[in-house]
Design a protein that fits this description.
The protein is mainly α. It contains 17 helices and no strands. Helix 3 runs parallel beside helix 5 and helix 7 runs antiparallel to helix 8.
């Protein structure tokens, strides 16, 4: 039986890896699925509760004394639990055992899921050749099980893309992630979480290669399709416009960059993002690009609004956003010979961090 010791000593801070959604196998029983219940709790950050349910599921499977679907499934789920809290060595042990049992009993659904998940672990451990080998095996089995254009196949394709990207082989990474993205979009639509993750992965590959225009075009397409499907004020537009804005920060077309941040700010306001750090950032950057166009009065209006949106909670939770807002406004004040105001602002913000 499984050698890995299960303990209740957990890392209470979740560390999520950059990857597509994992696969947790559905139980063949009609009773409530504890694996899915445990993972749902983990998604909510209830780590201890998730562990207890998954551990209970595993212990129930052990009672039968059989190496069957239920045991392989519960082991795979525990492996995924450990992967998500970044205990990679434990995750590897559980996935290997799930693969061993599922192969022995010819349970290819769990075998393919465990191999997919093990591939993600190997990538995180920088065992890239091992990752690609096991992911290729998972892909082959998933194509036979689910069909060429299934979500399961797309998940593994995207994970292969991530493994290649980790090896700095970006052409290969693009190849696999583009295939995954096409399937996710066809199956789940433009706003589906898997579609969004694959889009972000592909954009990241473009940025790593200095292909900023391709990344911008990708996010612009995502924004346009989302707007067409959900309307011009939808909160689903916030992520793609935020991604676009992040790519425009170094653009020399200040008018274009201003328009992107203006739209970003409008969406935040229409969706009640109040003094949320994103709004502070959008206000600051809009002011910055107005100032670049020598529109000083309007620029300062946005700088002031950004500073007004900073409270103690924002300062402590998002210090980087606060530092950017303060630094840019202080620079603006000093450039305009208003040194006393700049010093007073710096002192005010310092007090928030104390």
């Amino acid at each position: 039986m499984l050698k890995t010791k299960i303990t209740s000593a957990l890392f209470l801070t979740l560390i999520f890896l950059v990857s597509t959604s994992s696969v947790i196998c559905q139980s063949q029983e009609t009773k409530p699925n504890k694996g899915l219940e445990g993972m749902a709790l983990l998604e909510k950050g209830q780590v201890k509760e998730a562990f207890e349910i998954l551990k209970e599921d595993y212990e129930e499977a052990l009672k039968s004394g059989k190496e069957d679907f239920q045991l392989a499934n519960s082991i795979n789920n525990l492996g995924e639990f450990y992967r998500r809290i970044n205990r990679l060595n434990d995750a590897e042990s559980f996935f290997l055992k799930a693969i061993e049992i599922s192969t022995k009993i010819s349970e290819t659904v769990i075998e393919s899921a465990a191999k997919n998940n093990l591939g993600v672990v190997y990538t995180a451990q920088k065992k890239y050749d091992e990752a690609l080998k096991v992911l290729d095996e998972a892909l082959l089995k998933r194509r036979k099980l689910y069909g060429e254009e299934s979500t399961e196949v797309a998940i593994t394709l995207d994970n292969i893309g991530l493994a290649y990207a980790s090896k700095k082989n970006y052409p290969k990474a693009e190849e696999f992630t583009k295939k995954a993205l096409a399937i996710f979009e066809k199956k789940g639509g433009i706003a589906n979480i898997d579609t969004i993750i694959a889009t972000n992965n592909l954009a990241a590959f473009y940025k790593e290669q200095g292909k900023t225009d391709e990344a911008i075009n990708l996010y612009q397409r995502q924004f346009d399709l989302t707007e067409k499907e959900f309307g011009s004020d939808s909160p689903k537009l916030i992520e793609p416009i935020a991604n676009l804005a992040s790519l425009y920060v170094n653009d020399k077309d200040f008018k274009k960059t201003e328009s992107v941040f203006r739209r970003y700010l409008t969406l935040l306001e229409k969706n009640n993002y109040a003094a949320y750090p994103r709004k502070v950032y959008a206000l600051t950057m809009l002011g910055f690009y107005l100032n670049k166009q020598d529109k000083k009065v309007e620029a300062e209006e946005y700088f002031r609004k950004a500073i007004e949106g900073i409270d103690v909670e924002t300062a402590k939770k998002s210090p980087n956003v606060v530092n950017i807002a303060v630094s840019i406004y202080v620079t603006f004040l000093k450039e305009n010979k208003r040194n006393e105001e700049a010093t007073a602002l710096e002192d005010k913000i310092k007090k928030m961090f104390n």
